[in-house]
What does this fold into?
Amino acid sequence: MKRRDFIQQATAGTALVSLGSFGLQSFSLSIKTSKITILHTNDVHSHIDAFGPEDGRNANKGGVARRASLIESIRKENPNTLLLDAGDIFQGTPYFNYYGGELEFKLMSKLKYDAATIGNHDFDNGIDGLYAQLPHAKFEFISANYDFSNTIMDTHVKPYKTFKKGHIKIGVFGLGIELDGLVDPSMFKETKYLDPIEISQDMTRILKEEEQCDLIICLSHLGYNYRNSETKIGDLNLATATKNIDLIIGGHTHTFLRKPTIVKNLENKNVLVNQVGCYGINLGKIDFYFDANQNKAANGTSIIV
Ligand SMILES: [Zn+2]
It folds into this structure.
């Protein structure tokens, strides 16, 4: 590919955002640039079929089959792709009422999801109902701030997972929302909720310093932002209050962003925050570029399925 064509292709969509301590001016796209693609969904809520033609706003959108072919074509274009889900996989259609989540997990496995975090609705058949479906999931569940040690889920959920794509090491950790007041305690039993900011500080230290990750992603079901954001933590204040996170993939508030929101973190570096609404209508796509000097830049967009 010619350098000019490469740059045009690389910067298609939203503007490129610098993620390191260097500005974009020191970022040089070239043939040596590595590209990592992050695809993501959230709050799919058991929507397996596409919306029908009579469904006003969402007519003929969504559906696992179309999502599958879209993902396949993106993976073909860039094999260095990760597919992530930010929780609330369960609840919303009769598929969940009849099969208890088996179909959702089996289809996500077929689509080769790499990891998912746990949303409040994933406890809708109780923690035992979630546990019962785990054999159908060929992907990892990650949550760093739910302490499951006194529950049946103990050892079945990891705080984080690392992936190697090309020569780039990616660390992904999960965060869940406070269940108290949102889910009946008989459903989540002895699941303990830990402070998401404190946990993020631990996670980013481990992923950056011990695991030496080049790219750090937080898979969050905290919600995008709250009016009482002083007391209720959402993805935007999480981004501001932490460092070394490059991307926060959100869920829960069903917030549709056409492109990622850029937030400055504790060190005044850019963090991308994205969320793609709900029901599998959109697929988030964020491309990260690493130049020969390991400078990082990114751009992203939401694709209608
Ligand atoms: Zn939720």
Observations:
- Residues 196-210 form the longest helix (15 residues).
- The pocket of zinc ion is lined by residues 88, 119-121, 221, 252 (CB under 6 Å).
